[in-house]
Design goal:
The protein is 39% helix and 25% strand. With 84 residues, the chain is α+β, with helices and mostly antiparallel strands. It has one domain: 2-Layer Sandwich (Histidine-containing Protein, Chain: A), CATH 3.30.1340.
Length: 84
């Protein structure tokens, strides 16, 4: 287990929060795109000292954006919303 990975609680909470919405929620880091609803995808990618861009598209995207950004911020992770 890499010590640079953020804690398990953050990964699980972010994935569970994203899973409550039907919108597509994708995290971009450099050239990688990760489904935020995937615990494994988040766990292998999410580290505290990187900047991420969040892409949210779908019928409940405004609520999803607010909830997922709040979950990131709660755990001290930097994320910005992509321009749609």
């Amino acid at each position: 287990m890499a010590t640079s990975n953020t804690n398990n609680a953050a990964v699980v909470e972010i994935a569970q929060t994203a899973g409550q919405y039907t919108s597509s929620i994708v995290l971009q880091y450099e050239t990688k795109f990760i489904d935020v609803k995937s615990i494994l995808g988040l766990f292998t990618t999410l580290v505290a000292n990187h900047n991420y861009e969040l892409h949210v598209h779908g019928p409940d995207e405004e609520a999803a954006k607010a909830a997922v950004v709040a979950a990131f911020e709660k755990h001290g992770l930097s994320v910005k919303l992509a321009d749609n």
